[in-house]
Amino acid sequence: MWYRPTPWDVLELEWCPRYLWLSKRHGVPMTPNMAAGRGAEAGLRRFLAKALGAEPKPVYIDAGWAHGVVDILVKRVAASPVEIKTGLPRREHKWQLYAEAYLVKAAGCAVYTGYITYGEKIYRLQISKAELKAAETLLVKAAEVIEGPPPPPVKTGKCVYCQYRAICTST
Fold first, then answer.
1. Which pLDDT does position 170 carry in this prediction?
2. What is the distance between the alpha carbons of residues 46 and 55, in angstroms, rounded to a whole number?
3. For residue 170, which of 3, 30, 86, 155 is within the disulfide window of CB 3.0 to 4.6 Å?
4. Which residues, at least 6 apart from 112, have a Cβ–Cβ distance to it below 8 Å?
5. pTM assigned to the model
């Protein structure tokens, strides 16, 4: 495996494997929602860091074969990754958080909880060994998708607003 996967790759993989493959080949254009989220993130990061008792800065973690950025890392007896979201909750977000928790664990910290935030709402998630193992499996799968041929297209409701609908053969 030559590609070093990230938690963001896991998010894209869980959204759509073909989306992940296309994003690595064509880049991800900045949408208005992404730009709005980035604009709101700095103030939100300060608010959330204060609420959780953490430093308001992203933390880069290199676990060798995988790497990535955790939006905020709460360090107490154990470490808890925090994933900041400004949009609506999606099922895929928890897998991104679990992948971040895997990286934190691989860096030598104990991890039992993590946080996903939507605006100023903070949701605490328990993180088990099974979820860390599943996250590791998803990181490996993300690298395999990126390194391999394009996954077959699968038409879903997400295709209607996908950035790649014009070049994906499923639409």
1. 59
2. 8
3. 155
4. 78, 80, 126, 127
5. 0.93
